[in-house]
Amino acid sequence: MSEGIDTDPVGPRQRVLWLSTAAFTLLFAVWLMFGMLAVKFRGEFGLSDGQLYNLTLTAILAGSLLRFHFGVWADKFGGRKVMTLLLLLPVIPTLLVSQATEYWHLLVLAGLFGLAGNSFSVGIAWNAAWFPKDRQGLALGVFGAGNVGASVTKLFGPALIALVPAAGFFGGVIPGGWRFIPVVYAGLLVLMAAAVWLLAPTPDRTPAKSKSFAEVVRPLVKPQVWEFSLHYVVVFGAYVALSGLLPSYYVANYGRELAAQLSLNLDMETERNAMVAWVGFLAAVCFVFPASLLRPLGGYLSDKLGARGVMAAVFWSMIVSGGVLTFFPGVGVWGFTAALFVLGVGMGVGKASVYKMIPEAFPNDVGAVGGLVGLLGALGGVLVPLLAAPLQATTGSPQMLFGVLLGLTAVSTGWFHAAGLAAALKSRPAPQPEPAAEPASVG
After folding, report:
1. CA dihedral 131, 133, 137, 140 (to 10 degrees)
2. Short-list 409, 414, 229, 245, CA closest to 324
3. DSSP labels for 112-131?
4. Among residues 187, 178, 183, which one has the least CA distance to residue 160?
5. For a disulfide at 113, which of 90, 130, 289, 299, Cβ 3.0-4.6 Å?
6. How far is CA 265 from CA 101, 162, 163, 259, 270, in A?
């Protein structure tokens, strides 16, 4: 990998960064689009909470289980080819969401358009191949800010739905209502695929092109890989889960309070729609935005101050805010939102710090290690609500969603500090033996 300075603002390195970031933002929005659309279509399909959870779970799994493979493929065949492929794969299933009429239609399509979630490991490997070590933290942070795609549907979905005629366009060929959103996404996926293919630099960089599979997977047995994976469960997997669940959580636990403060009558359809828009706004601005858009700041701080020091601060901020969200449900909607904002800031900075540590520890295996960390971290999006569900049922406390995250954060923090202490002890120079005393002279 070249260490030279690329000063051209539209040079190859910058084109990789901006194209991959735009593609990732769109693919992330597609991956999590059911988080907001479910609020609109649950009544139309008569879905239970369990069915809604299954839809979210299916999309998350589809966007997680192949992350390792896509990361390796990006290192072997080049990010340009793999990202273009990943933009095209979800086009048809995303478009077909607009035609779904049964719950099982949605379930099957979630497993297909959910492939979009694998784009993260592609972009990480692609950017790591193009950027020098001293600039990887910021570059990977900028790319990772594409997580903001989780808020695209929340912010713009309600407005688009309101603007588009209920009957759609061209006699219903392009449907109206919530069904218009997947049509728009399908068109954008095609346009973005063309942009990546035509504008990305060639020849691409393929750091693992000549490696055998055994060489690719060899670093994965190291404990650091699994430590980084747990950290990523905390800062990313939980973020994915909360991004999908927060709109419903707000409505269920703070809907009446928020409606009273906003003078909304929830018995009226238009005012219920206004509540949905408000909930989407709060979830996006107070959680998704800081948890996404602060990722470049996390990368910059990790480049300048060291990723481990930044990560330590992240853990403690998440423990404090997670404690408030878990043990103080009486803080009201604005106290809850403030604590949620602090949690989002920690996640945004922390995601960049984890991915700064990966190329530092495994400079020649970013695709494989980054892919596995991304896979296991994304599965945290399944793990957190899965662990929380029985606790919520047993205690009757919806705050157990945050209690599970708090517990995982505490375990991750302990492992982080134990690993740091072990590394410090290992690097300490061995004590030198005292020189033997000279025998006393006689006479």
Report:
1. 30
2. 409
3. HHGGGGGHHHHHHHHHHHHS
4. 178
5. 90
6. 30, 19, 22, 7, 9
**Distance (Å, whole) CA 16 – CA 20:** 6
Over residues 240-252, mean pLDDT? 81
Mean pLDDT confidence for 298-323: 94
Task: Take residue 110 and report the two structure tokens written for it.
Answer: 């979630």
What is the tens place of the pLDDT at every residue in 99-117? Answer: 998 999 999 999 999 999 9
> Which residue(s) pair with 174 in the sheet?
169
Phi, psi of 268 (to 5 degrees): -105, 135
Q: Where are the domains of the chain?
A: 12-204+220-422
pTM of the model: 0.75
- What span, in angstroms and rounded, lies between the C-alpha atoms of 142 and 124? 11
Which two structure tokens, joined as six digits, stand for 137?
């933290």
Measured CA to CA, the distance from residue 181 to residue 183 in angstroms comes to 5
- Residue 61, SS3 per DSSP: helix
pLDDT of residue 7 exceeding 60, the answer is no
Taking only the tens place, the pLDDT of each residue in 320-348 is 999 999 999 888 889 999 999 999 999 99
Rounded CA separation 90/82 (Å): 13
Q: Report d(CA 417, CA 282) in Å as an integer.
A: 34
Name the architecture of domain 12-204+220-422.
Answer: Up-down Bundle (1.20)
